[in-house]
Amino acid sequence: MPAPIRLRELIRTIRTARTQAEEREMIQKECAAIRSSFREEDNTYRCRNVAKLLYMHMLGYPAHFGQLECLKLIASQKFTDKRIGYLGAMLLLDERQDVHLLMTNCIKNDLNHSTQYVQGLSLCTLGCMGSSEMCRDLAGEVEKLLKTSNSYLRKKAALCAVHVIRKVPELMEMFLPATKNLLSEKNHGVLHTSVVLLTEMCERSPDMLSHFRKLVPQLVRILKNLIMSGYSPEHDVSGISDPFLQVRILRLLRILGKGDDDSSEAMNDILAQVATNTETSKNVGNAILYETVLTIMDIKSESGLRVLAINILGRFLLNNDKNIRYVALTSLLKTVQTDHNAVQRHRSTIVDCLKDLDVSIKRRAMELSFALVNGNNIRGMMKELLYFLDSCDPDFKADCASGIFLAAEKYAPSKRWHIDTIMRVLTTAGSYVRDDSVPNLIQLITNSVEMHAYTVQRLYKALLDDISQQPLVQVASWCIGEYGDLLVSGQCEEEEPIQVSEDEVLDVLEGLLVSNLSTPVTRAYSLTAIMKLSTRFSSVNRIKKVVSIYGSSIDVELQQRAVEYNALFKKYDHMRPALLERMPIMEKTASNGPTDIVQTNGETDSTILDTKHLPNITQPASQANDLLDLLGGNDVVPVIQTTVPTKPASAGGELLDLLGDLSLTGGPTPTPAPSVPMSQPSFLLDGLTSQPLFNDIAAVIPPMTAYNKNGLKIEFTFERSNPNPNIAVITIHATNSSEADMTEFVFQAAVPKTFQLQLLSPSSNVVPALNQGSVTQVIRVLNPQKQQLRMRIKLTYTHKGSPVQDLAEVNNFPPQSWQ
Amino acid sequence: MQFMLLFSRQGKLRLQKWYVPLCDKEKKKITRELVQTVLARKPKMCSFLEWRDLKIVYKRYASLYFCCAIEDQDNELITLEIIHRYVELLDKYFGSVCELDIIFNFEKAYFILDEFLLGGEAQETSKKNVLKAIEQADLLQEEAETPRSVLEEIGLT
């Protein structure tokens, strides 16, 4: 058999292939030759063949049949063989194949080889891909080499030990004695790898961490020497002495100083020195500064040092190098919670980064900008953020819109500004906003009574411009339905009132109904809006016509509404004004609370929670449905459940309370409310003509604020436990509007003797600052005697370093929570 | 460091060093995805990107991309320096290194990398020492080779 071709020749040949198929052919031919050569157990050319195989493997072709050959090469005495053999092992073998264990013995022998380069090869292979079994077997050898005086081997042994510890953490103890005088080495390679080893041990074991704290002075000294010593050609990088070692030492110092006052103090000086003396013109200097800043922020450094660190980051932000800016933004994001004021100083630079071309930088800048928004800078920041929203990538728009809504909600300087801002978001990024923004906005508008005219006017104008953004269209049609009379009468105070006639308004709403751009949900909104206008406008006939047309719409939802509105015109006209009255002010729930009614389609537009004395309809559309169902207007089985996803029990209770003389089981029962109308339609009819009470079918126990002091606000939301109606499930939401986190937060509650209380575990014990999150905890209260619920609560937490304790009585529980 | 990849502008892999145990299929998948992602980056963009749960640091030298995957707590800027140091070592060894050198001498590129990094961390911070070690190892290799060719020459294979 002719000698197998050389590696270089093979590479050259393969590179001449013009197509993938040609290449594959050549490779297959060569693989066949190599295979037969392997079969012949040819020692001379094994090395060459494996090398060729490795090349083909890199091109993506299978090379598993070479695995055993690598082992044979490793076992050979020739250095060339070993070199390629170990390389092959690292490339072709991994711990998943049992074959790799055969290496163990070879490696063991080679670890004790007379030639240091062979020892080096085996250490390298073990440290790169050694499995846990191999590590267990060979840890002893590695430990021995860790103590050798040969620095070439010592440094490799140190990193090999790191790998062993990562694979088999229990073996860490074993290396402890060998670490005793690692740091007294002069050789930088050994120093560097020793620091890595110490870092690994400290990260994994708190005991090791406390043990190695005593090394802090030594580390500080080494670092100082590096900085102060003159030019050392061997380790110099752009005028800085061994930056790799400096960075590693800084990182180890960070771990050792974290949470420990003494160590932190010992490093204050050197950190200040590094921070001020390091050259910043090249990347290498900035790398060291970056690590220094991370260390300063993590340990218990004095405030002057922290300010220095933040200023360094601020300077980074102005650097021309994009990488540096990116790193600065990332670090600032980590520190914005704890050093908020210091970061605020760099706000304008951060906002400028929003205009950067790089996607990663833009994202960081956006996150940081939201973290920096507060009551003082809200106007300016919002301008920038809205501009950003206009021009950013679609991936960002959803997050940006949500962030803007949140910020606007928290810090809006005026209602008008709030509404303007939300409108701006809806017009620019309407299709990317979250589903619940529509009901939230509607609630906001309803509650800003004085802005109704202004709002409806602006929304109307926006509709004239563009009807493609569904959330905007939905909010606009809802508003026009509610406040159309204000629009037509031209009552706007905030800006120049426009002249609009009833017909024009109806034109617009009808246009929405027929437009291809409108989704079914939007159409439902506009139909309802048109219906509402029947009590506010005088052109009732036109409205009647529109409504009757849609009685035969293909869309079942529209059809149902239209038919019912028709019925409203025909048979129940006397009820129409009451049904379609103006919406009352809605109580705001804790956003995303568990008891939020989530009606994701447009049927019911808001979360209705105010159940007290509502003579009006709170949900005209669905209530009309319910009503007509109850009255047996259709043959449709009245399934109140579907339109009322929560609290049928209390709803039933409501009805029963009000209608008194029904012979159903007293007290709120979990039996579904539909049974009520089905069995007693006549009673209800009577009840309805005398009392307009179509409220509360969707009633929920309203939430309440139990405590609000010093920035800590605790809200209670309620649920009835279905199997046992005597148990009220209260969820507390604790939010913190102050600027510092409240840590170690503990909520305790006590109730009078007739009650029983069960407190479940809280979601966490840190209430983040600036309302950026909440702590929730569930309380179950058993109230068999149905007495009025009272509670005494005790709050303990740590705020800005000092412990706070407070007691309070909670007496304002809504009646529904204990009846 | 979890792994380092070298690839050309056309996406051809020139070197792959893995410091975490993964099966071949997984390695291929990661390589393919990452190469695609990095090649899609515009020249003015920054050298760092977040990919899966790793930080990717990459730099282009002539026609080759050097790409490293580091963990959350690693320093991106010093990783750039590590990449640069490796390029310097290759440059010194090959004398004005170009992609072809790495293609035809890939095993040497690996040897150099293995003298500079071990288990994903730098083992030697002095350029001189790394190159010296490689030089010595090369010499050792040559010494091992020569006796055989002498024997061959005088016909005593």
TrEMBL record, chain A:
The record's listing under InterPro entries reads: Adaptor_Complx_Large_Subunit (IPR050840), AP1_complex_gsu (IPR017107), ARM-like (IPR011989), ARM-type_fold (IPR016024), Clathrin/coatomer_adapt-like_N (IPR002553), Clathrin_a/b/g-adaptin_app_Ig (IPR008152), Clathrin_app_Ig-like_sf (IPR013041), GAE_dom (IPR008153)
| Principal place of residence | membrane
| Annotated GAE domain residues | 699-814
What cellular-component terms does GO give this entry?
AP-1 adaptor complex
Quick one: a GO biological-process term for this protein? vesicle-mediated transport
Coiled-coil regions listed in the entry: none
Q: What membrane topology term does the record carry?
A: Peripheral membrane protein
- Keywords (A to Z) from UniProt: Cytoplasmic vesicle, Golgi apparatus, Membrane, Protein transport, Transport
The record's listing under SMART domains reads:
Alpha_adaptinC2 (SM00809)
Any one Pfam family match given in the protein's UniProt record, by short name:
Adaptin_N
SUPFAM superfamilies for this protein: ARM repeat, Clathrin adaptor appendage domain
Give its localization.
Answer: Cytoplasmic vesicle membrane; Endomembrane system; Golgi apparatus
Protein family (similarity comment): Belongs to the adaptor complexes large subunit family.
Q: What is this protein called?
A: AP-1 complex subunit gamma
Source species of the chain: Carassius auratus
TrEMBL record, chain B:
Bilayer disposition of the protein: Peripheral membrane protein
Against InterPro entries, the record matches this protein to: AP1_sigma, AP_complex_ssu, AP_mu_sigma_su, Clathrin_sm-chain_CS, Longin-like_dom_sf
Mention one GO molecular function.
clathrin adaptor activity
Can you supply one Gene Ontology CC term for this chain's record? clathrin-coated pit
Q: From its record, what is one biological process in GO terms?
A: intracellular protein transport
Per UniProt, the keywords (alphabetical) are: Coated pit, Cytoplasmic vesicle, Golgi apparatus, Membrane, Protein transport, Transport
Compartments annotated for it: namely: Cytoplasmic vesicle membrane; Golgi apparatus; Membrane, Clathrin-coated pit
Grouped into one coarse class, the protein's main location is membrane
Show the Pfam families listed in the entry.
Clat_adaptor_s (PF01217)
Boundaries of each AP complex mu/sigma subunit domain copy?
A: 1-140
PANTHER family according to UniProt: ADAPTOR COMPLEXES SMALL SUBUNIT FAMILY (PTHR11753)
The subunit field of the Swiss-Prot or TrEMBL record says: Adaptor protein complex 1 (AP-1) is a heterotetramer composed of two large adaptins (gamma-type subunit AP1G1 and beta-type subunit AP1B1), a medium adaptin (mu-type subunit AP1M1 or AP1M2) and a small adaptin (sigma-type subunit AP1S1 or AP1S2 or AP1S3). Binds to MUC1.
Q: Any idea what job this protein has? A: Subunit of clathrin-associated adaptor protein complex 1 that plays a role in protein sorting in the late-Golgi/trans-Golgi network (TGN) and/or endosomes. The AP complexes mediate both the recruitment of clathrin to membranes and the recognition of sorting signals within the cytosolic tails of transmembrane cargo molecules.
Q: What is this protein called?
A: AP complex subunit sigma
